[in-house]
Structure formats: C-alpha cells, structure tokens
Amino acid sequence: MYVCNCKGLRENQVRTSIQAGAHKVAQVFHACGESPQCARCVHRIVTLIRAEAPRTRRDDVSRHA
Ligand code: FES
C-alpha cells in the first residue's frame, strides 16, 4: 500500500525507516532517499511514526538489557 503517492513510498518502506531510527517526517523521507512534494501524506506518516515508535523503543531497551 502506498503512503506517499507523489514519491511512491510504500507502507513497509516507511515502517522500515522508522524502525531504523527515523522519528520525524523529514527523516523518513531522507531515509527513503526522497523529499516531500505536496505533503498530503504527512498525516499518514505521522500516524505510522506514532504506531511504530513505542515498538521501536521497546526493542531498543531489550537490546541493551
Ligand atoms: S503524497 Fe507524499 S508528498 Fe505528495
């Protein structure tokens, strides 16, 4: 499923960039090698960041335990 139609970013690609440490929309675009165009996808990307962030933090904690 596409999250960003302008740049063709898929949900899995965005989730992967978040899990790799991107926690802002600009960082997600940068990690995907793109930059925002119309910004209509920002809300969807923020939703994914919020959904993935707690999971990523838990993983970080367990890796350091
Ligand atoms: S839909 Fe993502 S920049 Fe336009």
Automatic annotation (TrEMBL):
Top-level taxon of the source organism: Bacteria
Classification via Pfam families: Fer2_BFD
Domain BFD-like [2Fe-2S]-binding: 2-50
Keywords of this entry: 2Fe-2S, Electron transport, Iron, Iron-sulfur, Metal-binding, Transport
Coiled-coil region(s): none
GO MF term list: 2 iron, 2 sulfur cluster binding; metal ion binding
Family: Belongs to the Bfd family.
Protein name: Bacterioferritin-associated ferredoxin
Species name: Roseospira visakhapatnamensis
